[in-house]
Amino acid sequence: MLPLSHVFQVKSEGPKLVPFFKATCVYFVLWLPSSSPSWVSALIKCLPIFCLWLFLLAHGLGFLLTHPSATRIFVGLVFSAIGDAFLIWQDQGYFVHGMLMFAVTHMLYASAFGMRPLGLRTGLLMVILSGLCYAFLYPNLTGAFTYIVGVYVAIIGFMGWRAMAGLQLVGAAWRWTELAAGTGALLFIVSDLTIALDKFCFPVPYSRALIMSTYYAAQMLIALSAVESREPVEDYRLSKAK
Question: Transmembrane residues, as ranges (predicted)?
Fold first, then answer.
């Protein structure tokens, strides 16, 4: 059962996410055609991510400055917005640029989630799942994408491992922010896998709706995971010194 203190904390975050939900609704209501990329389309697509910047900033600049994991998630959201903008023009040759931005995002998120606990079983499971995904995509990859996609799958798989390694659903060590991080990572993987299948393998029905709904949900949950930050800067420095 969710502890009462956690319930109050979750409820207190709700009002700060209202702009994000409104911006997400604007994106789906306008549903600007992807065949006509423009700066307006880029702005509408990035607007929910901008709102997640504001969500983290609403906790105070001091919070970000004293919590390295929260700072890295914030910077990851910045790179995500840049990646979103690049993908608006993916048919004009900017798909790889978008992939690069999101690869940086995943590395920042993985760094924010940390390496403790190690979670070797979870890591082994992610290696197997990542390998299966790449093996499925491989016959349809050509040229540089053969290597680029392989590296990207490894990076997002690593991020997923770090997000889920510390997840405990029972006991005193349970934290709702870790559940948010793990769920967000899985949704991000679903979103990116759908992009890969649709681009390299076969048309996925309602792909854009599936990609964007899982993507926005993933980013929101990962941003939420920064609220109960893993370690203040003082503890972070002490842990590095050990």
Answer: 39-58, 70-88, 94-111, 118-138, 144-164
